[in-house]
Design a protein that fits this description.
This protein folds into 2 domains: 111 residues, dinb family like domain (Four Helix Bundle (Hemerythrin (Met), subunit A)), CATH 1.20.120.450; 75 residues, Nonspecific Lipid-transfer Protein, Chain A, CATH 3.30.1050. Helices cover 43% and strands 12% of the residues. It is built from 6 helices and 6 strands, in the order H-H-H-E-E-H-H-E-E-E-H-E. A hairpin with a 7-residue loop joins strand 1 and strand 2.
Length: 209
């Protein structure tokens, strides 16, 4: 747990602590959807960062138990929502509303991305093939309509040969044509890869955040 992760300044303990607190933050959003009373994902960015920094100093066994317990709380919160409550709108750190039904997918993508960051042999290529499109959609969503980002016509190729196209509408007038395999595209969009294996005029992207 004290070994460095692939995230600058974070050990593996930081990553595991973040995953635990992310589960609790998403429980807040699920509670919001269930009750109709606003529950922010985090009290503030400063509190989020302080919780991660403080939690990263704990023993490995405590980190493990915390992650398991928070994951269980997330699962229970999901089970408590009725069919109609899954359509409730919530917001996270980005103020754009989204339906509660997107929360399980957000959690899954968070886990995949930070498994890569743990540097324990898991890569985006290891995401199950039948879920790669879901993962790519999650990665793309962060870059839609970002005024500080480039405009990109993105063509993604999946392992079965199927292709899908997304348009990332940014603040620039030039539209960059970019094509690549799904795992490489996800790595580029999340800032975990430099995009050198992609085809076309690959622009720099704003920080994943």
């Amino acid at each position: 747990m004290r070994e460095p992760s692939l995230l600058p300044g974070w050990s593996r303990a930081h990553v595991v602590t973040h995953l635990a607190r992310n589960a609790d933050g998403l429980v807040n959003l699920l509670t919001w959807a269930r009750t109709g009373v606003e529950h922010p994902i985090y009290a503030s960015d400063a509190d989020r960062e302080a919780d991660i920094e403080e939690g990263a100093g704990r023993l490995a066994q405590v980190l493990h138990e915390d992650l398991l317990a928070s994951s269980e709380r997330f699962a229970v919160a999901c089970e408590r929502l009725s069919d109609s409550q899954w359509s409730a709108s919530v917001t996270a750190r980005n103020p754009v509303p989204f339906p509660a039904s997107a929360i399980p997918g957000l959690r899954l993508f968070e886990l995949w991305t930070h498994l890569v960051d743990l540097d324990v042999g898991f890569g985006f290529e290891d995401i199950p093939a039948d879920l790669l499109e879901v993962a790519t959609t999650s990665a793309v969503a962060r870059h839609l309509n970002r005024p500080e980002g480039p405009s990109v016509h993105l063509r993604v190729i999946f392992p079965d040969g199927e292709e899908r196209v997304w348009d990332l509408v940014g603040g620039g007038g030039t539209v960059h044509e970019v094509t690549g395999e799904a795992a490489e595209v996800i790595g580029w969009l999340t800032g975990r890869r430099d995009g050198s294996t992609l085809r076309g005029e690959v622009p720099d992207l704003p920080a994943w955040g």
